[in-house]
Structure formats: C-alpha cells, structure tokens
Amino acid sequence: MRLTRAVVLSAIFCLIGIAIVARAVPGDEISARAHKLHFSSIVLDTHDDTTQRFFSADYDLGKRNADGHVDIPRMREGGMNAIFFSIWIDGKIMGPPAVQKALDQIDAVHENVNKYSKEMVFARTAYDVRRAHEEGKIAALMGVEGGHMIGNDIRVLRIFADLGVRYMTLTHFYNDEWADSSTDKPAHNGLTDFGKEIVREMNRQGIMVDISHVSDKTFYDALEVSKAPLIASHSSCRALCNHPRDMTDDMIKALAAKGGVIQINYEKSFIDQAYKDASDKETGGVVQQLCEITKHCNNDEACVSRELANREKKLTEEGKLPHVSWERIVDHIDHAVKLVGADHVGLGSDFDGASMPDGMEDCSKLPKITDALLKKGYSEGDVRKILGENTLRVMEQAERVSRELRAHP
Ligand SMILES: [Zn+2]
Description:
Order of helices and strands: HHEHEHEHEHEHEHEHEHHHHHEHH
Number of domains: 1
Structural class: alpha/beta
Distance between the termini: 90 Å
Oligomer: single chain
Bound molecules: zinc ion
C-alpha cells in the first residue's frame, strides 16, 4: 500500500514536473491571449526621439539597425503601429536658429515617412491613425519637444500645426521665454501671460498641450488655461521615483480629472529610485550629464547618444549603477491606474532618447507589457485603452475643441 502510494505520488510529482517544464517559456515569450490582444490593438507610443537618428548616415528607418530602439522591422515585431516622432533640439538654442532646426527635423520626418510609404503613413488626426491601422500601416505623427522651438513667435506655432505637429511640450530641460521647466530654476512663476496665450493658440490649432518636462506650477497654470485635456507624453510617477520629471499623485489626479493622459516614460532614472540615486551620485543627474556630454561632443547628436550609452554601460559594468528590470514600467502603469483608473494612462517610452531597463531593449519587447497587464488581471478593454485608445480619445477631444474655437473665435 505504502509502496503503491509512493509510486502514485512520485508519478503525480513527475507529471507536475513535466507540466511545469512544458509551461516554462523563455523570458520574452508571452501568452497566446496577450499576443492576440496586442497585435490586434492600436499601440501608440507618444514619445520617440528617433528623429535625431534620421540625420545619421548609419541609420535606416526601413532596416533593422544594430543599435537604437526603433525602426520599421522592430516596430512590426513589437506591434507598435503608431508613433509620435519627437522634434527636439537642445533647449539652449533659441530664436530663429531654433525654428530653423525644428523645420529641418519636421522635413526629415516627412521625407522618411514618404520613403517608406508602403509601410508607413503620416497621420494628422485620430481618424488617420485608425485608418492606417485598418490598412495595416504604421501611423507616423509628430510632437515638438520644447516651446523654445517656436522662437518666441506665436505664428510659428500655427505653421507647425499646418505641417502636422500634434503636440508640444511647453519646455524641455531649461526654461524657455514663457514657461518654467521642472529641471531649471523658476524664472516665470509657471506660465507667463504670453505662455497662457500660447496654450490658448495650441487649443485653437488642435495641438495637444504636453506638460512633460514643465515645472509643477507650469503644469497647474496650463491645466487651468487649456480648454482641451492635457497629456504628459513621457512622464512617470513621482510616488515611485522622486524625480522632478515625474508627476506627483496630486498632479496625476488633476490631469485625469480634466480628461488627460499620463504616458509612462521607461527611462531608468525616472522609474527606479535606486538607479536615480546612484546616477545622481555618479553623473550629477540626467540634465548635468547631458549638458556636459553635449559640450564634449560639440552638439553632435549622434556623438551625444553614443557617449551617453558608453558611459552608462561602463558605470553599470563597474557596479556603480544598478540593473533595472522592465517590470518597473508596469509598476508605474499600475500605480497610475490604481490612482485614476485605466482611462488616463498610456505609453510614452522615450525610445532613442533614454536609457532602457533590462528586458525592454527596444520596441520589439512591447508585447511583454500587454502580457504583464493581463497577468495582473487587467481587462482586455483596459489594456487596449492603455496601449493607445486613451491617447486617441484626447486627440479627438483636442480636434473637437479646435473646431469649436475656430467656429466661434
Ligand atoms: Zn524628454
């Protein structure tokens, strides 16, 4: 009897063992349900600095590149079918040279999209994004990262809108002429009167007001002035990582109360406190480091990203910077969802502009986020909202506000 029971028990354990082995999958594999959901959804990333790479002779949007985070083959692999290409230049460049450089980048986005028009189509509205999805194409959109690029001239904002720009962050790392940044000393007590006029003009033009990078006071001023919901195209939660680039719980609640969306940023020093503390100690923090490297590289952007990656790799190998898991991204999504619900959270990776955590090496890894959210018990509808539908909703609201303001000026 004992022997029989032992045999039965060992057979059961053996079967359990086989079942565990059969279910064990490599780290990057996801469930069939997550795969089906992810690859049938609109996966819209609101912030990618890939535009800078268009100026490098080594980069080709249509081919798989050995470095960086985004290109068409990897977007296909990761199911990322809508992308906001960021128009960005250093915040110390102001006036007409800033406008000129921004126009260079806007042109580069259009040229690259045209070059790969079989795969990609330029989108100006939420409807355009949905149509691109139905046609199996990637929707390309544009956002300006920093109000300094209008050269302190409100007319440039209208020209940007005509060229297809659909959001603008009010600042980058430094204050501009009319708004305070989160990573600079306050100079304007938030938004100046001209800054408020710019927000109103953005509403009229259908350009979403993006509060990533701005100071807390600028955020509250913009929230009060804007007639359309705001976005934070690439910010995470300050409750989990105390960085001024992230949003406090109160800010996230205020943003959501007016219908806005926080699109979570994957940058290691914005999502992980231990990494942020170590990085501050070793490099003086993200702004100081960028400033130093930009000088060292004489403003050559390819050199800047190479140098940033090399220094980070070296510090990590020396054990001076801790490893950060991609699961921290999911923690930030989950924190924001618990705070304000699934209608107000999205994805704003900062690919090609930030240091990615382990396991999120490029955009091909995005399905893991869908898988992780389903495993946490999120409904398929809520996951779709986070992947892209929430951002499309805010775009539609911004379009509606624009139509109303133009009809009744
Ligand atoms: Zn940024």
